[in-house]
Every structure is written in structure tokens, then in C-alpha cells.
């Protein structure tokens, strides 16, 4: 039987709906203005030749054709995936190891202290982190070279040597994010039903068996999230240490796709080429993220 709403109920519903839109519309406008419109605008710019000064000229797919033959862009493409591979221990292995070790610390205050200690780099501004590491990497009076001198080694030019420049950037980025991912794994471990652990223990399962057969599968959603974050970090967030510590050098050894977008746009003043690089990078990592989500069944295995 169809029921009709009273005038008072209808008025209340309209007021609620109006309040909803009054709260949502300002945020939606800002989101579209500063998030989606730049993407759409960059898409159109990727088909044009422009240097901020001269008149814009439509050149079709010429920017994309030049992009894939540009030697520096090819280096940036390779280095981006090297970043992902080298950041893997800092995004998955080390955070999981620290989370597991902290789960065995019985004293709650001591456990909280170590968690806070490992989490501190996450809350620091990335620029401040880079300045601290720049001092530690200094070839003349840096902390690392002073330690190596005690063993008769060094000094090394960490940020200007082709062999050490890229790993040095990875260390900075990994140190910054390790604590955050450790907290995520710690939260995941706390969400695991203790009955599973107790049942396995009573059956005589070893700690390794409990981890491999119970904890690790139930931590899959956290692992998938951390892996997707690693992919995004390798393009977006890694720009900050690259730009501050090495500016992409030496010989473009530490550049990545995000840094090359900046170089094309604000060093070469080729806005069309920078926009083409931005659109290509966005499409590439969107496809990678979707593929990771599909192959992992969404966000991994859930207890339910």
C-alpha cells in the first residue's frame, strides 16, 4: 500500500536535501576546479605547442611522438620503475617486520614509544627531511662519511655519484614512509581474530606457520594498499627529494616521470610536451592501479 508523506515530513526532507547540497557543493566546486579541470586542460594542451608567451598552436600528436623518442624521458620512464622496485622493502617488507616485532612487545607503553619513534618521519615535512639527509650525505662533513672514516673508508659523494645517487634518493623516500606503513600493518595485525592464532597454537603450529598461513593472507588488503601507494609515491612524492637533493642528476640518473614533467614545463618552457608527459603518466599508472586491483580481487582477501 502506497503511503503519502505529511506536509511537515516533506518540508523536513526538502530542508535536509538543501542542507546536504549546501555542504557538498562548495567542496565539489573546489574539487572540480583544482583537481579535474587541470587534468582536462592538460589534455587539450598536450596537442598544442606553447611556451607561456607565444600564441598556442595545434600540432596534433606531435608532442606524444616526440615524447617517446626523447632520451631523457626514456631514462625517467626506466628510473620510475626502478624506484618502485627499490622502494618495495620500505613499503612492505620492513614495515611488516617492525609491526610483527612490536606485536611481541608486551609492555604497552614501550610498544607505543617505539611506534611513535618510527612514525616521527611520517609527520615531518618532506622538505625538512630532505635537508636533514642532505647534511648526512655531505661528502665533506656528513654523518655517513664520518662513520666510514672510522673504518678507513670513503669519502663518497652520495648524491653526485652515478652508483649511489638513485639509492640515496630511495633511502630518503623509504625512511619517510616506513613508519606510516608500519602503523597500517600494526592495525591490520590487531584486526586479526585471536581465535585463529589460539587454535593454531593449540594444534602445535610454529610461529612461522601461523604467520604464513594465517597472518599474511589476512594482511593482504593492507599489502595491496601499500603496493598501490608505492606506485603512486614513485611518481608523485618522489619528486620532492629529487628536486631538492639532485635536480634529476647526475646525468639524469635520478629523474623520474614526475620530475621530467616539471623539467619540460618549467626548464624547457614546453608546456605541450609537459602536458603530454603528464597525461601519459596519469594514464599509465591508472592502468597499473586498475590491473593491481583486478588481479588482487579488489583490496585482497577479507576474513568475511
Order of helices and strands: HEEHHHHHHHHHHHH
The fraction of residues assigned to DSSP E strands is under 5%
By DSSP (H or I, 4+ residues per run), the number of helices equals: 13
Major sheet size, sense and barrel closure: 2 strands, antiparallel
Total strands: the figure is 2
Helix content: over 70%
The general outline is globular
Identify low-pLDDT runs.
Answer: 300-304
Rounded to the nearest angstrom, the radius of gyration is 25 Å
Strand order of the largest sheet: 1-2
Question: Your description of this structure?
Answer:
With 304 residues, the protein is mainly alpha-helical. It is 73% helix and 1% strand. It has 13 helices and two strands, in the order H-E-E-H-H-H-H-H-H-H-H-H-H-H-H. The protein has a two-stranded antiparallel ribbon. The longest helix has 39 residues. The radius of gyration is 25 Å and the shape is globular. The two termini are 37 Å apart.
Amino acid at each position: 500500500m502506497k503511503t503519502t508523506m505529511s506536509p511537515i515530513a516533506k518540508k523536513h526532507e526538502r530542508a535536509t536535501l538543501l542542507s546536504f547540497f549546501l555542504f557538498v557543493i562548495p567542496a565539489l566546486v573546489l574539487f572540480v576546479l583544482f583537481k579535474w579541470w587541470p587534468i582536462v586542460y592538460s589534455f587539450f594542451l598536450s596537442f598544442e605547442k606553447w611556451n607561456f608567451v607565444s600564441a598556442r598552436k595545434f600540432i596534433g600528436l606531435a608532442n606524444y611522438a616526440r615524447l617517446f623518442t626523447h632520451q631523457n624521458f626514456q631514462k625517467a620512464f626506466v628510473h620510475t620503475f626502478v624506484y618502485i622496485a627499490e622502494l618495495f622493502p620500505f613499503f612492505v617488507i620492513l614495515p611488516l617486520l617492525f609491526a610483527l616485532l612490536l606485536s611481541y612487545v608486551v609492555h604497552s607503553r614501550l610498544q607505543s614509544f617505539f611506534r611513535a619513534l618510527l612514525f616521527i618521519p611520517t609527520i615531518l615535512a618532506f622538505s625538512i627531511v630532505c635537508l636533514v639527509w642532505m647534511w648526512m650525505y655531505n661528502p665533506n662533513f656528513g654523518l655517513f662519511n664520518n662513520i666510514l672514516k672510522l673504518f678507513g673508508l670513503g669519502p663518497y659523494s652520495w648524491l653526485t655519484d652515478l652508483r649511489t645517487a638513485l639509492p640515496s634518493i630511495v633511502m630518503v623516500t623509504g625512511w619517510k614512509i616506513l613508519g606510516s606503513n608500519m602503523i597500517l600493518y600494526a592495525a591490520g595485525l590487531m584486526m586479526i581474530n585471536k581465535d585463529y592464532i589460539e587454535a593454531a597454537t593449540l594444534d602445535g603450529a610454529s610461529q612461522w606457520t601461523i604467520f604464513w598461513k594465517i597472518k599474511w593472507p589476512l594482511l593482504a588488503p593492507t599489502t595491496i594498499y601499500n603496493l598501490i601507494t608505492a606506485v603512486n609515491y614513485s611518481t608523485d612524492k618522489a619528486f620532492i627529494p629529487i628536486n631538492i637533493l639532485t635536480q634529476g642528476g647526475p646525468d639524469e640518473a635520478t629523474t623520474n616521470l614526475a620530475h621530467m614533467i616539471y623539467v619540460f614545463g618549467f626548464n624547457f618552457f614546453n608546456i605541450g610536451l609537459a602536458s603530454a608527459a603528464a597525461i601519459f603518466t596519469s594514464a599509465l599508472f591508472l592502468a597499473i592501479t586498475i590491473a593491481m586491483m583486478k588481479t588482487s580481487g579488489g583490496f585482497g582477501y577479507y576474513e568475511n
